[in-house]
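Can't paste images in this forum, so I'm doing it all in text. The chain is below; anyone willing to post the predicted structure tokens underneath?
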Amino acid sequence: MDLERISTIDTAIDLSCNHFEGEIPKSLKDLSSLRLLNLSHNSLKGSLPMELGKLNTLEALDLSWNRLTGKIPQELTAMNFLEFLNLSQNHFVGRIPQGSQFSTFENDSYGGNLDLCGPPLSKQCGTSDSSHVPQPLEKEEEEENESYFFSGFTRESVVIGYNFGLVVGTIMWSLMFKYRKPKWFVEFFDALMPPKRRRSKKRAQRRRT
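Text version of the structure:
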């Protein structure tokens, strides 16, 4: 839902833990009195707007647990009153901006972004981690959905199929021997008997006849 009028005197916006999608609107820069902005635990995509650097009074920014990509804009270092920053669990890449308040943030502010480098992280820029091969978000989601589907499919189908086959087999087996022994069954086990035992069995049958 689009709001036709947004109050510019709001000091806090907390829209965390929802299912919001799409990109972060650049119009947030017009909230000149904003002190807290929390959009964490959503499904926001795209790059982080450099226009957010114009929020001169912002003291807390939490964009964690989204799907944001690209570099962290150097313009964000213009937020001189920023005391809390959490950009963790996204897909940011490149060097972390330095200067002003950004020099005071620690590793927790950037955790889970495997392609970020530079202070305060121990990973130096210009080095690549061979154990991590970044993939497109759509590919990751597709593989995750497929693995979840097939894991549930094999587990449930094997149990159901085994139980169904056991019941049907038991019923057919009991009916088959209730009325008469099938000819193939007799011939099969006769073939497994030693020759001596087979001859003695035939003699016993002749005596009964």
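The chain has two domains: 12-134, 140-208. The mean pLDDT is 77.
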